[in-house]
Amino acid sequence: MLVIDDLTVRIAGRALIEGAATRITPGARVGLVGRNGSGKTTLFNVIAGELSPEHGSVELPPRWRIGRLAQEAPNGPESLIEVVLQADRERNALLAEAETAHDPHRIAEIQTRLADIGAHAAPARAAEILAGLGFTHDDHQP
């Protein structure tokens, strides 16, 4: 469960978040809506551990990972699905190592871990995430 308790964050003396508290259970689908400058990105930075709050705390289960995408879609040769897949650092590292590994035991470990994390189904999951965000199949193409 993600637990935010009495969170206060100030940027340049301005309180963006003050006394925030919530508990988000595993499997919950949550949206964060607010005007520009209201602190949405700041809150994500605190949850990700990239910014420290002035007061309060954020607790994440130790096995949870946070995947994030840039606020603006990159303007490059990658498809949106590739951009989403880049957020999974473990999968990317394992796939890269699988290309160069020579030790049969290590290759077996890599393939087992890839299977455990559902790495080969990741593109389908990425497409599902993008569809849930309102992107069409045509939007997925570079």
Description of the molecule:
The chain has 142 residues and is an alpha+beta fold. It has two domains: 2-59, no CATH class; 80-140, no CATH class. 35% of the residues lie in helices and 18% in strands. The chain has five helices and three strands. It has helices spanning 40-47, 80-85, 89-100, 104-116, 122-132, and strands at residues 2-11, 14-24, 55-59. A three-stranded antiparallel beta sheet has the order 2-1-3, covered by helices on one side. Helix 3 (89-100) runs antiparallel to helix 4. The longest helix is centred in the C-terminal third of the chain and has 13 residues, at 104-116. It starts with a strand and ends in a 10-residue tail after the last helix.
Percent range for β-strand residues: 15-25%
Compute the number of structural domains.
2
Computed CA radius of gyration, to the nearest angstrom: 18 Å
The CA-CA distance between the termini, in Å, is: 36 Å
Low-confidence spans: pLDDT under 50, at least 5 residues? none
Q: Please tell me what the overall shape is.
A: globular
Largest sheet: 3 strands, antiparallel
* Strand order in the sheet with the most strands: 2-1-3
Helix amount? 25-40%
Helix count, per DSSP?
5
The number of strands is 3
